[in-house]
Design goal:
Blueprint: H1 3-16, E1 20-25, E2 28-33, H2 66-74, E3 81-84, E4 89-92, E5 108-109, E6 114-120, E7 123-128, E8 133-138, E9 144-146, E10 151-157
Antiparallel strand pairs: 1-2, 3-10, 4-6, 4-9, 5-8, 6-7, 8-10
Amino acid sequence: MDIKQIQELIKFVSRSGVNEVSLEQENFKITIKTNQNPVYVNAAVPAVAPVAAAPAAPVAAPVQAAPAAAAPATEDTSKYITIKSPMIGTFYRSASPEKPSFVNVGDEIGTGKVVCIIEAMKLFNEIESEVSGRIVKILVDNASPVEYDQPLFLVEPI
């Protein structure tokens, strides 16, 4: 890891709201701590490479956005499948501002269909659906930060 990548990692950590991140590679280990209130997440940071990163490790304590927590109280979501974020990053509904969204409410999706992009450390990772069905609700606003395992979409199985 070079100094520029370390600086980008520090900026990413400070924007994400996590208190501490540890990254360990073959011959390199770094821990970045901030003085913010702690958010307990134990996630693997994707390697800096031109290919999409693998899903992150499990969360030590789930972190959920307040709007997503309020939605289940008003409607029964037990019949829906939730597509969750496999990593920490910034959620984008389309490849660029000029392009249409990957999916909209009411769209039918199949396994392997790209539903969004999550940017992590300047890498744009296409997130593919692991289920087939119809998009019922989009739970995250475009260009919003997301945590590992945060619900992104509700899908009605077909």
